[in-house]
């Protein structure tokens, strides 16, 4: 039997690719779990084992992670368009192998920063690639649903791993128990990615062959043959929907980066035990993850723009609640609202990029968008640390609330609706 006979021709659609799509969802859950294993634990490790006191210095590991992940996102998009998706996915998981061991054995904070550099490379290569692969498989009709499922798996795993890591840290100590999760995640992901996941670049080529301009004339200025520089300029600055999505993504992850480094310390000011700190931190990505199961599909029906603007506005309100509170109940309400606002935004922004970018340069557009989005980790960590050092933890949260509200207004004013009108 010939190779052509053994290899089925690609078909677009979620149902037609259900098995591969499900495997990619599982792999992205493992990607999220790698972040969740450390989020509750590392700020406490910084203060209790390494004796760090300056907020800006503590947040350096978040900044290192964010910058590295942003750069890795760009290369993930470029390499996946050039060499295929699966090799990039596998390479990303190889970078994850030493991370849990470095965190377990770290004799000083420099090891933690170095581990987060490797984790940033892992997250940029693997998460970006699973996003592109899912968009490849489903085609144009169900992008919102696909991104909702993808992000729900990833951030649901962040929440679950944060909760489990907090429990393990409370009962067995900050090291090594929480980081054993990461070792198991990496082993399973390498098995799934290496043996069971198949290349999806052929699906992108199929969609490119079938691609036709929108009836309303949107995107006519974006051609198939854009080079890397043009893609960078369009996604970052010039194209209204793509550049608005990049801004909203940056501010969204600014909030996440700030919460990652700051929330456990803020919650600890009320004398909460580690388990309750872990629960509060898990509520945010937990609601975020579950909510995307609804919001991604909803954006396929009602459109992208209004969900994004309203979601950024809700994040601003949630951060104000957190900043004004000083107890478990107030913080729980704020983190739930923050998760809901993020769920409205996160998969919808990726769907916008999928709507606008041509299949021939989709991977690179997703990579550029994720560069800006994940720089938000570093901006949030550094800005939050500086403001917290100068004015206190609550002031840093208020600053993030103001930025989120401003972003909601910019999206409402500048972004157009990217969901193509349904044919009648």
Would you give an account of this structure?
The protein has one domain (16-202, 234-414): MFS general substrate transporter like domains (Growth Hormone, Chain: A, Up-down Bundle). 80% of the residues lie in helices and 0% in strands. The protein contains 18 helices and no strands. It is found in: Cell membrane.
How is this fold's topology laid out?
Blueprint: H1 3-6, H2 18-39, H3 41-48, H4 55-58, H5 60-83, H6 85-96, H7 99-105, H8 109-138, H9 143-172, H10 180-196, H11 201-210, H12 228-238, H13 240-268, H14 274-302, H15 305-324, H16 328-356, H17 362-391, H18 393-414
Helix pairs in contact: 2-8, 2-9, 2-10, 5-6, 5-8, 5-17, 6-8, 6-10, 7-8, 8-9, 8-11, 8-17, 9-14, 9-16, 12-13, 12-17, 13-14, 13-16, 13-17, 13-18, 14-16, 15-16, 15-18, 17-18
Which architecture name does CATH use?
Up-down Bundle
Helix content: over 70%
> Class, according to the CATH hierarchy?
Mainly Alpha
Distance between the termini: 45 Å
Uncertain spans: 1-5
Number of strands: 0
Mean pLDDT, rounded to whole units? 87
Largest sheet: none
As for the CATH topology, it is Growth Hormone, Chain: A
H/E order of the elements?
A: HHHHHHHHHHHHHHHHHH
Per DSSP, the total helix count is 18
Structural class by secondary-structure content: mainly alpha
Per CATH, the superfamily is MFS general substrate transporter like domains
Q: What is the total domain count?
A: 1
What is Rg? 20 Å
Brief write-up:
InterPro entries: MFS, MFS_dom, MFS_trans_sf, MFS_Transporters, Sugar_transporter_CS. This protein has 424 residues and is mainly alpha-helical.
């Amino acid at each position: 039997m010939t190779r052509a006979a053994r290899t089925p021709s690609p078909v677009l659609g979620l149902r037609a690719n259900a098995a591969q799509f499900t495997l990619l969802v599982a792999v992205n859950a493992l990607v999220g779990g790698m972040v969740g294993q450390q989020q509750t634990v590392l700020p406490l490790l910084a203060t209790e084992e390494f004796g760090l006191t300056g907020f800006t210095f503590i947040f350096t590991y978040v900044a290192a992670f964010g910058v590295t992940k942003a750069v890795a996102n760009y290369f993930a998009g470029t390499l996946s368009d050039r060499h295929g998706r699966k090799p990039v996915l596998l390479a990303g998981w190889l970078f994850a192998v030493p991370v849990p061991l470095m965190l377990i054995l770290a004799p000083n904070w420099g090891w933690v920063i170095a581990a987060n550099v490797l984790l940033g490379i892992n997250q940029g290569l693997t998460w970006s690639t699973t996003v592109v692969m899912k968009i490849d498989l489903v085609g144009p009709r169900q992008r919102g649903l696909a991104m909702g499922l993808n992000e729900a798996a990833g951030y649901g795993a962040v929440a679950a791993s944060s909760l489990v890591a907090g429990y393990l840290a409370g009962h067995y100590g900050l090291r090594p128990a929480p980081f054993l999760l990461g070792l198991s995640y990496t082993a399973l992901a390498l098995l799934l990615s290496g043996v069971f996941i198949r290349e999806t670049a052929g699906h992108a080529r199929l969609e490119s062959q079938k691609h036709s301009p929108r009836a309303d004339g949107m995107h006519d200025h974006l051609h198939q043959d854009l080079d890397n520089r043009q893609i960078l300029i369009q996604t970052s600055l010039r194209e209204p929907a793509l550049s608005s999505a990049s801004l909203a993504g940056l501010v969204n992850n600014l909030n996440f980066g700030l919460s990652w480094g700051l929330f456990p310390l803020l919650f600890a000011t009320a004398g909460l035990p580690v388990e309750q700190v872990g629960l509060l931190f898990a509520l945010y990505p937990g609601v975020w993850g579950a909510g995307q199961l609804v919001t991604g599909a909803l954006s396929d029906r009602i459109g992208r723009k209004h969900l994004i603007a309203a979601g950024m506005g809700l994040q601003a309100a949630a951060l104000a609640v957190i900043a004004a509170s000083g107890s478990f109940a107030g913080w729980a309400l704020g983190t739930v609202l923050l998760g809901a606002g993020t769920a409205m935004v996160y998969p919808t922004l990726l769907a916008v990029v999928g709507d606008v970018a041509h299949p021939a340069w989709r991977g690179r557009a997703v990579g550029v968008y994720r560069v800006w989005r994940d720089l938000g980790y570093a901006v949030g960590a550094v800005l939050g640390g500086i403001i917290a050092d100068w004015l206190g933890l609550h002031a840093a949260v208020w600053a993030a609330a103001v930025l989120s509200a401003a972003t909601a207004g910019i999206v409402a004013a500048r972004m157009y609706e990217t969901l193509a009108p349904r044919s009648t």
